[in-house]
Amino acid sequence: MILFKSRTVIFEAKAEKPMKIYPIPTGNFKLDGGAMFGVVPKSLWQRTNPADENNMCNWSMRCMLIEEGDRLILIDTGIGEKQSEKFFSYYYLNGDASLEGSLKKYGFHRDDITDVFLTHLHFDHCGGAIQWNKEHTGYEPAFRNARFWSNERHWRWATQPNAREKASFLKENIIPLQESGQLNFVNIPEDQDGVFKTGLGFDVLTVSGHTDAQMCPIIKYKGQTLVFMADLLPSTGHIPLAYVMGYDTRPLITLNEKEKFLEQAATKGYHLFLEHDAQTEICTLKHTDKGVRLDQSMSFNEVF
Predict the structure, then answer these.
(1) Dist. CA 288–CA 273, nearest whole Å
(2) Which end of the chain has less neighbouring CB within 10 Å, N or C?
């Protein structure tokens, strides 16, 4: 009789790494305070956003990096570095932060990025997606291994711009994305806005007051709901309903979108990630007898 000695092999499943999120500051720029607050008088908005001698207020271009599994997803890219000195002089670029430096701080490089999600295609949100080639004769993707994400509605709006937004939709930021073969579209319905799946591990809220089909990512993170506000809420100074940017193409729609979202954010305790607030990375909201107002301002690391 032959005895077979059995052996039990235990396979230990490797636990997936938990999601990690990093704020990615890319520098600051300045915009006219009146343009940023629309019909609200300076005597009111300067309380939260003091202007310089040229009536310019300072704004951040704060992006977000999501690390999950084998994916590194960058949300927005800042203004980039390829525009002319004359162009940059209009916006008074300032601050020590850069996209390259912020990625390096967390041990990453541009080539590590797998996906670049663009909330919309205004130059201060997507300019860093495209760079000059080595010969300085043309343009190429700044993230050679990434897929770039927009949606068809917004893409059509940006490539056939109205006269009011034309200066914000720069061809050199947009057309090379299509020519690269790396452009992808999130499936957003043609005839409605709301919350939709992206297939990237987070949902998006689409809103069309600022520009058509802008996408604000909604991320479940460490037991909280974190919303990347893009230009639906540029800063804590824009929380009161009437504080709508002069840049918004449909300000009455923005009013409705803000009211609905801010009510929900205050009720459900969302944490709002502010792309343009030069002082505050994260804020929460509360209900008051004057409407929804600021609850807390904090840094990202204080919360997460």
Answers:
(1) 21
(2) N
Residue whose C-alpha is closest to residue 206's, from 198, 219, 197, 195: 195
Angle at 55 between CA 54 and CA 60, to 5 degrees: 105
- Cβ–Cβ < 8 Å for 67, 22: yes
Exposure string of 128-165, with b = 16+ CB inside 10 Å and e = fewer, is bbbbeeeeeeebebbbeebbbbbbebbbebbeebeeeb
Residue 117's closest CA among 55, 176, 183, 21? 183
For residues 222 and 66, what is the distance between their CA atoms, to the nearest angstrom? Answer: 13
Displacement of CA 218 from its chain's centroid (Å): 11
| Residue bearing tokens 């599994």 | 69
- CA dihedral for 239, 241, 247, 250, sign (positive or negative): positive
In 3D, which of 108, 31, 32, 17 has the Cα closest to residue 63? 108
Q: Dihedral sign, CA of 192, 126, 118, 264?
A: negative
Task: Name 25's bridge partners.
Answer: 62
| CA quadruple 166, 168, 173, 177: dihedral, nearest 10 | -70
- Name the residue among 146, 78, 80 with its Cα closest to residue 116: 146
Task: Give tens-digit pLDDT for 206-243.
Answer: 999 999 999 999 999 999 999 999 999 999 999 999 99
